[in-house]
Amino acid sequence: MTQAQGGALDRYFTLSERGTSARTEVLAGVTTFLTMAYIVLVNPAILGQAGMPVASVAAATCFAAAFASIMMGLVANTPLALAPGMGLNAYFSFTVVQQMGVPWPVALGCVFISGVAFLILTLTGVRQLIVSVIPVHLFAAVAGGIGLFIGFIGLKNAGIIVSNPATLVALGDLRAPAASLALFGLLVIGALSVWNVRAAMLIGIVATTLAGWLFGQVTFNPEPYSLDALTGTAFQLDLAGVFGLSGQQGLGLLEILFVFLFVDLFDNIGTLVAVTKRAGLMDAAGRIPGLNRILTTDAVATIVGSMAGTSTVTSYVESAAGVQVGGRTGLTAVVTGVLFLITMFVAPYAQLVPLAATAPALIVVGGLMLLPLREVDWEDPMAAIPAFLTVAMIPLTFSIANGLAFGITAHAALKLVRGKARIADWFLILLAGLFVARFCWMAAG
């Protein structure tokens, strides 16, 4: 890098002002990439269960992560990387497509519309109204409930947890090849994690896949590389199908859009607070510099991701790994994005990775997502009851929407009976009323 190039980078990303250097930012970008590269394998495994072509989803995942991270770096100058979100991909696959029977192109259309809605809310400032009525303990509960949801899916995919007519769920046969392979991967990821290896999950997935090959659990049938494999999901979203949904799906459309929008919004807020606080970028009043640019980038990334063929794109808390090694500017995010762009050209081979190899990553990620639950005051019934209902109902009903509905309704109801409801809570009570109407409609149907 010439001195002139270094000076241009310094000026654009304000490297000196933030006490960092191009070398440090590059190292931080590589670190962030290694900690979140598992999504290239895990996201296709989850969306593939919705009937989407795995190779195409893998390529779309890389493209969406590359576009979003580079845009975040260039527009918002924040060391925040983005990719298709965990939890929302599970909701897309297991709830929207499999339970509600919505075709995946229509589900992609819902993601697109939610991204447009997020963009409008950001540009008009309405998002501030939504954020203001949801208490902190429900933010934490949603994150924890999604963590349990993801972990449960991982245990299910591995065959460690199986269905049982008497007890609903039970312990599976741990001697079965898939379960044994997943337990091996869990051990590898756990061991590397306690030794603070940055790429623990990625290494664990690769090691488990190799073990599966060695023991004949994976069939390797290499096919000629073709760009056609990358276009199986691109521009396949069905917007006309979204507005053509009827019956139970018609009401479900509102639910789908609400969940995609709500979870993306609050997942971003939580991640932004965590990452910017650790990076020392938050001001004395607790405000995040350039918040509108950050949220606008996220909304645009979700729109572009849906057109590429993947579920909602959101910011990743793994960005904190890059911040930990010194990342302070958008150059970190740009480097992460460039690495995802390079990875896109080998992404179609993600279909060679078995579910048993990605299951351990789901279990570990799910466990790590429980951390926000410590923010709940479990001795205060006003916080504990709505938080518990949210955490429990998400995995037990296989629906983030149900968890949100129970949590928000319980919070509003307790405020009313305690006499703490105020005029400013009108939007919260409106949301709760809509959820009650939804439950009544579902019961009548």
- List the domain count as a whole number: 2
**Counted beta strands:** 4
Q: Would you identify the regions where 5 or more consecutive residues have pLDDT less than 50?
A: none
Rg: 21 Å
Please report the distance between the alpha carbons of the first and last residues: 65 Å
Query: What is the spatial order of strands in the main beta sheet?
Result: 1-4
Largest sheet: 2 strands, antiparallel
Strand content: under 5%
Structural class: mainly alpha
Query: Which range best describes the helical content: under 10%, 10-25%, 25-40%, 40-55%, 55-70% or over 70%?
Result: 55-70%
Give the count of helical stretches.
19
What is this structure, in a nutshell?
With 445 residues, this protein is mainly alpha-helical. It has two domains: 13-221 and 230-369, no CATH class; 381-445. It contains 19 helices and four strands.
